[in-house]
Amino acid sequence: MEIARSSELSVRPATDDDKGAIYRLLQIAPYHHIHVDWHVPVDWLGTPGFVVSEISESGGERAVIACLAAAADPPPAAWVRVAAIQSGQQPQSLLKLMLQQVVPYLRDSGIRELGWFPVRLWPEQWIMNLGFRQVNRIVTFFKEGTEIPSLPDNGIEIRNAEVTDMSELAALEEEAFHPLWRHSAQGLRLAFWQSQSFKLAEIGGRIVGFYYSVEGINRESAHLVRITVARGLQNQGIGSALMASALDSFRRRGVRQVTLNTQVDNVSSHRLYQRFGFRRMEDELPVWALEL
Ligand SMILES: CC(C)(COP(=O)(O)OP(=O)(O)OC[C@H]1O[C@@H](n2cnc3c(N)ncnc32)[C@H](O)[C@@H]1OP(=O)(O)O)[C@@H](O)C(=O)NCCC(=O)NCCS
Question: Which residue in 263, 268, 271 sits closest to 289, CA to CA?
């Protein structure tokens, strides 16, 4: 990868040796971002989409002042997974320089879209000028209690997922989601190890959908992270059966409140959640993307 260099500022691929500096930045920098997923920032070290900006200090020492990691998991869409900019720097020009390094590599790898989902809103003021457009918003749904509406018995079996199921589940993700929102088999494996409950639906021995959840803000709450149904089998009650199973296992654990997130334009998911007594909350978070 070509290295952008000014008299004192350079952008170069991040290496293992930068680990300490990157974690320090993520802790102390006023502008920092870690994508909401199952990875940790160092997972992306060594990938060409992870770069650091450094400057010369007196005595010739170099100091890392910013970093950015963009990675696809899976292609053809990538997310900004990590970003941080030390105080006293110019965020927009640093972001621009780092993106100039990363974007050609993403394009060459067949990536068509770079998403940025900032839970803290600081990037907005700069990324709009760098070509990012708001492509969606994330909304939260909330349910008090774990009541389940009555459902027809339609032969859907629910069982605990095994780690060996993840490749098959990744194929369902590919069918069901726009590229930006898909999880890879590896991403699902990480979710499998870190989630509290991970179950799948089968009809006649064929996997047709799955969900997983984590503990919420306290032991009496749960967060339903994902619910996915095979594209050709939607609207046949599978999502409802998965939701009923999730609520039943929450009830057994003494859960009293359930939350989940979805995209503002994902109307079929809203209908499912509302049928199960979830209410849409007012807060929304924007999702940005750069077309490559
Ligand atoms: C959102 C999603 C999980 C819903 O799953 P689903 O299996 O289609 O949901 P259901 O079949 O239970 O419910 C959908 C509709 O089918 C109807 N339905 C339920 N059982 C049925 C049956 N046996 N026969 C025919 N229709 C049925 C429901 O009444 C419901 O109608 P509504 O849309 O008017 O409310 C699914 O569309 C999906 O995987 N989408 C892509 C991934 C996604 O967006 N996930 C959620 C965000 S993370």
Answer: 263
| pLDDT tens per residue across span 192-208 | 999 999 999 999 999 99
| Structure token pair of residue 40 | 């940790």
Average pLDDT over residues 138-149: 97
- The whole domain housing 154 covers 139-284
Q: What angle do CA 71, 287, 245 make, to 5 degrees?
A: 90
Give distance in angstroms: CA of 265 to centre of ligand 1. Answer: 15
Question: Distance from the CA of 81 to the center of ligand 1, in angstroms?
Answer: 31
Cα–Cα distance for residue pair 41/99, rounded to 1 Å: 17
Are 255 and 211 in the same domain?
yes
Contact 273, 262 (CB under 8 A): yes
Number of domains the chain is built from: 2
Neighbours of 42 (CB within 10 A): 16
Question: Can you give the pLDDT at residue 2?
Answer: 45
- The verdict on the CB of residue 176 being under 6 Å from ligand 1 is yes
Sign of torsion over alpha carbons 98, 101, 104, 105: negative
Q: What's the mean pLDDT in 224-238? A: 97
**176: closest CA among 240, 230, 212, 235?**
230
Where among 79, 111, 131 does a domain terminate?
A: 131
DSSP-based three-state secondary structure for 97:
helix
